[in-house]
Specification:
The complex is a heterodimer of chains A (about 375) and B (about 130). Chain A has about 375 residues and is α/β, with parallel strands linked by helices. Chain A has two domains: about 130 residues, Peroxisomal Thiolase, Chain A, domain 1 (3-Layer(aba) Sandwich), CATH 3.40.47.10; about 230 residues, Peroxisomal Thiolase, Chain A, domain 1, CATH 3.40.47. Helices cover about 35% and strands about 20% of the residues of chain A. Chain A is built from 15 helices and eleven strands. By secondary structure, chain B is mainly beta. Chain B folds into two domains: about 45 residues; about 80 residues, Beta Barrel (OB fold (Dihydrolipoamide Acetyltransferase, E2P)). A five-stranded antiparallel β-sheet of chain B has the order 6-5-4-7-8. Chain B has a three-stranded antiparallel β-sheet with strand order 2-1-3. In chain B, a hairpin with a 4-residue loop joins β7 and β8. The relative contact order of chain B is 0.20. Classes of the chains: A alpha/beta (about 375), B mainly beta (about 130). At the A-B interface, α5, α6, α7 and β5 of A face β4, β5, β6 and β8 of B. The structure holds zinc ion (ZN). The site of zinc ion has 8 residues of chain B, from loops. Zinc ion binds next to loops of chain B.
Chain lengths: ~375, ~130
């Protein structure tokens, strides 16, 4: 229903991975400053921080005012938006809504997560907070365990083989090789995925996104002239949708309804059909989640997501490239920042600044970020603005 | 956090879920609003103690408090009334834990909580 428009004027991000020498705030400031430097004429009217578990990861809350102050923006309103792993794109969605409503002229979004200060079990516990404390965490089900259950159900219901399940991580790692900000930059084969250590049967290590630190930022403008002649990217559509809270409470666990609804809404706002998309950043925290998301967005028929990936349908040099900088497996998944990384990557693709990862002149790119197991889905569609 | 478990002890010990007073649909975990008919007239109801495994996983990397149990089975169990419970499956041979297997509820030590080492009890299932 938006009457006005929103544009991304610049982006910034840190490398994803181990930042032992940098704090949560160091990372947020690095990404935020970099986005602000990209459009020095524009001053944000509001700051929205996307973050999932700074309270646990860094004993820190009140990130809005803290990051604003560290960026020299003291005085402006500043908030944190949390929606588990969808915090980043949810923060971006709120910021765009504010800009489109006309209540602010510009907004800075910073997604940040500090995960590596935690022991592996503590990180699992932090991620498990996306799910019910009383009925999911209580029985010892980690986030990986829920996705393991889902993966077995998917494979048994749809006849998907182990080798096929491995195909989306293979694409991610292939694209990560040339992505300078990616956590992992080494190509792998399906065999490496299928033989990696068991996490939550049938899911193995390479089916699961790694734990890493990172921050990404985007500066949003309502008036394209405020960008002072810089290349801008238009936000053509954006939607957030929710599903039944826990995956095991749903009638059909394989229907990623939140993804389907958010994608449908964002694409219709943009007035686009699927073949118009030049690339898609899909939230594949686990192999099965990537496949079910591709199916929910209509890129694959039900049960065919992994097989389509294996057949090369989503490679970087295909008609529908996904995860052009490595996705959640290779670029990495600093949870509250992930959605903003995807948006930054869409910006690079649409400004022809993606280097070796550039896809062939895309006119439109979509990003898909989820929290929980398709519990919150946030989708945005971007296009060249000129 | 132990009080969080104490508050819903009937749900953990006796599988008390909820039943919709309007259409009769039953749920575990309990719900505030019926997913079938939208009614908010939900009453507590003890669930049947037997069902079948819909799907399962074996978890190798535990959450804190579950270190002594890994690897262990987690299953989605559909009870006889159609309610679906996420639960551990214990004391059952590996080859018996499979999709479609009949299971029954029992009460076991669920986890050890906090530095005081308080033991929390709750439902687990075994292959029948
Ligand atoms: Zn009802």
């Amino acid at each position: 229903m938006a009457r006005s428009k929103a544009y991304v004027a610049s982006v910034g991000f840190t490398k994803v991975g181990d930042h032992w020498e940098k704090s949560l705030l160091d990372l947020a400031v690095e990404a935020g400053s970099s986005a602000l430097k990209g459009a020095p004429k524009a001053k944000p009217d509001v700051l929205i921080v996307g973050n999932m578990f700074s309270a646990v990861g860094a004993s820190q809350e009140h990130l809005g005012a803290m990051v604003a102050g560290a960026l020299g923006l003291t005085g402006i309103p500043a908030f944190k938006v949390e929606a588990a792993c969808a915090s980043g794109a949810s923060a971006f969605n709120v910021a765009c809504s504010l800009v489109k409503s006309g209540s602010v002229g510009s907004a800075l979004v910073v997604g940040v997560e500090k995960m590596r200060d935690l022991e592996p079990e503590e990180a699992s516990q932090a991620l498990a907070m996306a799910e019910s404390a009383e009925y999911t965490q209580f029985v010892g089900a980690s986030f990986a365990a829920l996705n393991g259950l889902l993966a077995r159900y998917y494979m048994e219901s749809e006849g998907v083989s182990r080798d096929e399940l491995s195909s989306i991580p293979v694409i991610d790692h292939a694209n990560g090789v040339t992505a300078e900000h990616a956590q992992f930059r080494k190509a792998i084969t399906a065999d490496v995925v299928s033989r990696s250590s068991m996490v939550a049967d049938p899911l193995r290590l390479f089916d699961c996104a790694p734990v890493g630190d990172g921050a990404a930022a985007a500066l949003i403008l309502g008036d394209p002239k405020a960008g002072a002649g810089k290349k801008l990217v238009g936000v053509l559509g954006g939607a957030v949708s929710t599903n039944e809270f826990s995956v095991y409470e749903r009638k059909d666990m394989l229907d990623f309804r939140a993804t389907r609804d958010a994608f449908g809404s964002a694409m219709s706002q943009a007035g686009l059909s699927l073949p118009k998309l030049g690339a898609l950043e899909v939230h594949d925290a686990f192999s099965v989640v990537g496949a079910l998301s591709l199916e929910a967005m209509g890129l694959s028929k039900r049960g065919e997501g992994c097989r389509d990936a294996k057949a090369g349908k989503f490679d970087l040099r295909s008609d529908m490239p996904i995860n052009t900088f490595g996705g959640l497996k290779a670029r990495g998944h600093p949870v509250g920042a992930t959605g903003v990384y995807q948006i930054a990557e869409a910006f690079l693709q649409l400004t022809d600044a993606a280097g070796k990862n550039q896809v062939d002149r895309p006119d439109y790119v979509a990003t898909h970020n989820i929290g929980g197991v398709d519990t919150t889905a946030a989708v945005h569609v971007f296009g060249r603005a000129s | 956090m132990a009080i969080q478990s104490w508050r819903i002890r009937d749900r953990y010990y006796r599988l008390v879920g909820s039943r919709c007073a309007s259409c009769g649909a039953e749920y575990f975990p309990p719900v505030y609003r019926c997913r079938e008919c939208g009614s908010d007239k939900m009453k507590d109801k003890e669930m049947p103690k037997t069902g079948r495994i819909v799907t399962y996983t074996q978890l190798h990397e535990p959450l804190p408090g579950f270190e002594a149990q890994v690897p262990f089975y987690l299953a989605l169990v559909e009870l006889e009334n159609g309610a679906r419970v996420l639960t551990q499956v214990v004391d059952s041979p590996d080859e018996a834990v499979k999709t479609g297997a009949k299971v029954k509820a029992t009460v076991r030590r669920a986890k050890v909580e906090g530095e005081s080492g308080q033991i929390i009890y709750g439902y687990k299932f075994i292959v029948a």
